Amino acid sequence: MSALPNTPPNARAEADGTAPVPVPTRLLVHALVREDGTVDSGELYAVAGLLGMTDQQVRLCVKRLVAEGRFTHEGRGRKALLRAVADATGSITPNVAYVRHAYRQDHGLAAWDGVWHLFAFAIPESSRTSRDTLRDTLRHLGAAPVQSGLYVSANPIEELVETQARHLDVAHAVTFLTSTDLRVGGVDDPPALAAALWPLDDIAARHDRLAGLAQACLDRLARPERPTGPEQLAMAIQLAAAFTHAMEPDPLLPPELLPRPWPGTHARRLTAACWTALAEAGAHAPAGTPVPRLFVQYEDLLASVPEHLT
Q1: N or C: which terminal CB in the chain sees fewer CB atoms within 10 Å?
Q2: 3-state secondary structure the chain
Q3: What average pLDDT does the segment 108-113 reach?
């Protein structure tokens, strides 16, 4: 069996010294759920080995998932079949609209209008849970803290924030405003503000790691000796984990606020090319075998993005 294009994430750091994106065993099991709701144990153990996991890790994880009622277990060892009891959690597919917007930005189709969107709130300690949830929502939507109780976004997320605030019953304590001349301390230059408010270096490093993995996978898929089905599945899971790792903390700032060239653009282009190559290779799903949901989710995800943008 040939080697994967990069060091297994659970084994050791990459050659350049950066920490690899880990693939938890539980996430691996969920990623291998096929369209008919089953997981083939032989496939699971084969892919786990390629990702640097031990058989014992897999056995313990499966035991926990069955005990939690998430899967049933039929048979023994590598010939066993797992069956998802309900819709499996642990998906590593980002939001479709979020990814579509990222590709539009990459191609200059979502220009910034120069407006900063600000959100201020003063929620008492008695509603601490709601306050923390609102804060988490703002961060998840890409807003950055300016100071205590004040967040800023370069994107118009008011409707989403207000919906969450109403759901938490704290809408009365939230103030919405916009500005075209935001200044924090002595900084008012928009790109400088973005660099000060968001961890752009960390986000860029995540995209660089994703780009490196996607390019390595593309190089491996281009060789005359095609990777086996388990190897392709391992590639797909690594790629999905790295894509999520890069995209989740990315506020999708408008290109006008980012350093040029921005590595996110390059990484997303390579990711789309890699998924296309994996789909065309097809060894991950022999004829007559149900396709892992992970492939279906990513194919649907990228299909939602106009082809000229990927």
Answers
A1: N
A2: CCCCCCCCCCCCCCCCCCCCCCCCHHHHHHHCCECCCEEEHHHHHHHHHHCCCCHHHHHHHHHHHHHCCCEEEECCHHHCEEEECCCCCCCCCCCHHHHHHHHHHHCCCCCCCCCEEEEEECCCHHHHHHHHHHHHHHHHCCCEEEECCEEEECCCCHHHHHHHHHHCCCHHHEEEEEECCCCECCECCHHHHHHHHCCHHHHHHHHHHHHHHHHHHHHHHCCCCCCCHHHHHHHHHHHHHHHHHHHCCCCCCCHHHCCCCCHHHHHHHHHHHHHHHHHHHCCCCCCCCCCEHHHHHHHHHHHCCCHHHC
A3: 91
